[in-house]
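Section: Multi-chain targets

For targets with more than one molecule, the full set of components is provided together so that the structure can be written out for the assembly as a whole rather than chain by chain. Components appear in the order listed by the source. The example entry contains two components.
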Amino acid sequence: MALPLKYNFRNITVRKSSTLATAFTIGLTVGVFLMVMALARGIDLTLTSSGEPLNVIVLREGSNAELNSSVTREQLNDLIYLDGIEREGDKPLAAAELMTLIYKPRKGMSQGSNVTIRGIGPMSNKLRSGYKTVAGRMFQPGMTEAIVSRRIAERFQGLDIGDKFRIQTIDYTVVGLFDAGGKAFESEIWVDVNSLGSTTKRDNFSTVLLRAKDQTALASLSKRITDDQRLHLKAMPERTFYEDQQGAASGFLKGVAVFISFIMAVGAGFAGMNTMYAAVARRTKEIGTLRVLGFKRRSILAAFILESVAIAVIGAGIGIVLALPLNFVSTGTANFQNFSEIAFNFRVTPDLMLSALIFGVAIGFVGSLLPSLRAARFKIVDALRAS
Amino acid sequence: MKYGKLILKNILRNKRRTLLTISSLVVSLFLIITLATILTEFSRGSESSNPLRLVTRHAVSLGFTLPVAQQQRIATVPGVKAVIPFSWFGGIYKDEKNFFANFAVDAAKFREVMPEIKMSEDQWQAFINDRQGAIVGQKLVKLYGFQPGQRVTLRSPIYDRSVEFIIRGVYTGGDEKTLFFHHDYINELVPAWARDQVSTFSILANSAADVPRIAQTVDSMFINTDAPTKTETERDFAISFETMMGGVKQFMYGIIAAITFSLLLIMANTMAMSVRERTKEVGLLKALGFQRGTIAGLFVGESLLVTTIGALIGIGGAMLIFKSIDLGLYIPNFQSFVPSAQTLLISFLISIGVGLLSVVYSAYRVSGMTIAEALRSTE
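Its structure, encoded as tokens over all components, is:
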């Protein structure tokens, strides 16, 4: 026969400070785990959402990032007449873009990071969903004007509407702020591709973005371009391009989350054991009585494990509450592909909260095993004789 | 320490609890030391910078290059002792996983600008006299077994070229995970757009007083050209990289704070249990005439003894582990993973602080009880 749950819960409330201290220790462990995982998830979600399902990105063969890539005008002309590219009217849905970096100090600091400047063409916005002007207006083609993602304007100095920044000897004026639905482009400054080309005296583009007609065309276009020995280019679905980038940063963070929270869990587990051993010692006589009343050893075992797990659930709850305010908090770090800022949000998602809960319960369960076994093993006579 | 024996007896009374508490302390301190060591490594570049050295890059960002011809003009600026190209090549050795930095430099003047790089005179001469020559840091030798005379091919995705170098020397000092080679050599091999271009110049000043003036003069010299420059101290240049990581540092400080707080809770819980169980004894001690201060002192001493033992094992263990396996070798951009003296001192102070704070309330409460109250305790 199992002990009534009421017994467990009453016991938890007897030593409130001890229960709370243990729960908080577990809570901090779970909280740290959840926060680091939320950071990794934020990067993942930003990058996985960035590629459009039917877009193909074309880079120079052998380059590993947009910044290192270069596509000539001749190559561009070969590309846009390939079969399988979606058209709008008689124009192919293709955009040649130029990418460079500008170093800007962060707000409130003297130093900062590189921000990506992307020169975009007339088709660029049709190839990307989620773009929205949130303040000001779009730049005028051919002018030295720029639009800045709102997040970058919030994080860096001198990038608000009306501000100017200098590339070589030319000043660009910020005329608008935009959102891009949480995608990687929300870490960028956009200018007209031709203006940027003449400012930086570059004849080539960095990359070309193409929209395939359908899934079959997506695969065949990528293969056709990559296999063409004459072109010296490589093409891949835009989705794949961004997903490949996520590995490095978020994989490292997940490793860090596991390492830190495992060690913290060991510490919290020991603390939980102390609490449970004390609970067992304090209630030795009581355990004897319960056994006399006919409760089995395994009921005693279950009761103590349950008690510890209950404390752990409270702890996990505390951890989740600690981490939850971080949800959607904006942050940024260097993207090591292009060596530039990537802004993203912490994301405390339901599945992460569930793993945090399971993690907390596991600490409580493992920590309770030895003390509960001890309680279950008492001989009735000895237990009743305890002082 | 006439009460020392009593304190020792008290912590041995519940050996299991003491052991569990110390274990908690040990693992938590190990973690704090690990994180603090990572933080130290993050700012190694700025901390170990040479105050007489400046770096010139393109004013917009490192995404733009500078014409190598600027070197001659920078050399004429008063206060400049020597200037060399210091150009990021981004070469990959066999696989992208084998990341290490490699720079094109002016081999002849390199040792003048980088006095911290040490190598035998023979190897210096061998490097300077071989256009295809390269030198590698001691740590790269440990990682990849590079030997003088060996041919090493680096593939640079930036320049779209694979270039073969011959190792002519192994240096110690400075960043020991870098490969340096002649700028003259790769300048002929890179594509046309990159010819006679460098990513940065490294400048050595005659004296500290010259440093700010050099920065100003150099930048104003090129301000209205196609390649405007930004010249800053090596320290500021390193910081410009460190701030790229954004909130990562603050985030790690936050984690260290969370671990410290959880340590405090663990210790406070242990001490609360310990004090509670001995409430009756406190009554007895009081009846025997012990003062409040002495009784509180006994508990504080107990807490401090436990945390000190934990601290010593945690710090000693971390030192032992990180000295026997230098993780710094395997983490890109890390030079070392041996905790600094400062880290060890701070983690020790954290333990002492935890030891004191965790017991204050319990000791204050129990020592303030009247004899009757304490003796009547049911624990």
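Chain B has 15 helices and twelve strands.
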